[in-house]
Amino acid sequence: MKVSYSKVDTYNTCPFLYKLKYIEHLEPKDDLSPSNPLFIGTACHEGIETRDVEKAVESYKSHFDEITSEHEVEIEKIKSIVPKAIEQIPDCEFYEYKLDVPDEFVGYIDGLVKVDEGLYDLLDFKTSNNISGYKTSPQVHIYKYYFERLTENKVRDLYYVFIPKSAIKLNEDLSNVKEITDELKSRDIHFEKIDFDKQQVNYFFARKSLLEKETNFQKRYSSKCNWCQLRKFCKTNGADRSELK
Ligand code: SF4
Questions:
Q1: Residues 6+ apart with CB under 8 A from 160
Q2: pLDDT per residue over 7-28, tens digit each?
Q3: What are the C-alpha distances in Å from 20 to residues 103, 228, 232?
Q4: The ligand 1 atom nearest the CA atom of 17
Q5: What are the CA-CA distances from residue 14 to residues 4, 89, 166 (Å)?
Q6: Average pLDDT, stretch 92-110?
Q7: Among protein residues, the one whose CA lies closest to atom 2 of ligand 1
Q8: What is the distance between the alpha carbons of residues 97 and 121, in angstroms, rounded to a whole number?
């Protein structure tokens, strides 16, 4: 069975959610709000990879037919933080490096910085302030394991690289945009160095193995239900399918 890190992570969070997403292929309609974190994260990745703020802005704009004043706010935020990311994140030899093992695993390493011949630092970019939430994630451990298994190279250090989001809430009349962009300009990119832990890789394989044998896909209620994209479908058997793709 071919899995990604996200598939096993989703199964870990809730087997029923895994079934809805990956077996029944139910997905909520695209969130086209100006602050969609997926669009902003992708734009930041584009800016870091191309070392070009305008490319980040183009990436963000490409998701919308019309750019309103609310979109302009998000563009100002991108213009405030991406130059800092370009300045502080070292240029990588590889971006979006594909890890592909037939019938087993697929994943993409955000960035690989060459430190010596055959030796790299592995970066995973997160557009988030939730450092404690991510630093225990097994993702970079799995990526190091597969990168070293699939190539002749070694990974020296692992980092989650946090591109900060503003902690200031935008006023409804958009009157505090400058305060927000000034705050973002004052923030640094945070590099969280992670010590490699083989136990994390073993745990991943144990969960993958459970997933392969799973037949019940039971609901696992937790605080994560509050952010579950498919919770409406989960809680009411006759969910409104117009909210799904
Ligand atoms: S709402 Fe909770 S229990 Fe239901 S699918 Fe989502 S994560 Fe699972």
A1: 124, 126, 131, 134, 135, 137, 140, 191, 192, 194
A2: 999 999 999 999 999 999 988 7
A3: 21, 11, 12
A4: 5
A5: 16, 34, 30
A6: 97
A7: 225
A8: 13
> CB neighbours of 131 closer than 8 A, spacing ≥ 6?
160, 162, 190, 192
Q: If DSSP states are collapsed to H, E and C, what string results for 99-117?
A: EEECCCEEEEEEEEEEEEC
Place of tokens 């071919």: 2
244 three-class SS: strand
Closest-CA residue, ligand 1 atom 7, reads 225
Q: Which is nearest to 165 in space by CA: 135, 125, 112?
A: 125
Give the distance (Å) from ligand 1 centre to CA of residue 220. Answer: 6
Name all residues whose Cβ lies below 6 A of ligand 1.
14, 16-17, 219-221, 224-225, 228, 230-231, 234
The residue type found at 151 is T
Q: How far is CA 182 from CA 72, 179, 187, in A?
A: 16, 5, 9
What is the 3 state secondary structure string of 26-89? Answer: CCECCCCCCCCHHHHHHHHHHHHHHCCHHHHHHHHHCCCCCCCHHHHHHHHHHHHHHHHHHHHC
* pLDDT one-digit tens code per residue, 149-200: 999 999 999 999 999 998 899 998 989 999 999 999 999 999 999 999 999 9
Using alpha carbons, select from 235, 17, 76, 183 the residue that is nearest to residue 67. Answer: 76
- Return the pLDDT at 243: 54
Q: Quick one: which atom of ligand 1 is closest to the CA of 221? A: 3
Domains and CATH numbers, the chain: 31-214 (3.90.320)
